[in-house]
Amino acid sequence: MNSTASKPDGKFLSRLFFKVLPAQIFLLMLTGINNMVDGLAGSNFIGADAMSSIGLYPPFQMIWLAIGSG
């Protein structure tokens, strides 16, 4: 029995990881900027007290995105 046949190919996975890494970094930065802009715009329209309650949403959004992206 050949023991090397059951080992996963690490080169394929690392190549795939580095291929999609720039897109992942870009999307995370875009999400962060979006959250900051939403916070600034929202606080100007609804006030700081209401924004403090809305500020609880982004952590849940990140959890849902993490679960959804698998």
Separation of the first and last Cα atoms:
34 Å
Give the mean pLDDT: 82
Number of helices: 3
Note poorly predicted spans.
none
How large is the share of residues in beta strands?
A: under 5%
Task: Tell me the overall shape.
Answer: elongated
* Backbone CA Rg: 20 Å
Structure class:
mainly alpha
- H/E topology pattern: HHH
Task: Give a brief rundown of this model.
With 70 residues, the protein is an all-alpha fold. It is 81% helix and 0% strand. The mean pLDDT is 82.
What do you see in this structure?
With 70 residues, this protein is mainly alpha-helical. It has a domain at 42-70. The chain has helices at 10-46, 48-54, 57-69. Helix 1 runs antiparallel to helix 2. The longest helix has 37 residues, at 10-46.
List descriptors.
70 residues; mainly alpha; 3 helices; elongated
Which SSEs are present, and which pair or pack?
Layout: H1 10-46, H2 48-54, H3 57-69
Helix pairs in contact: 1-2
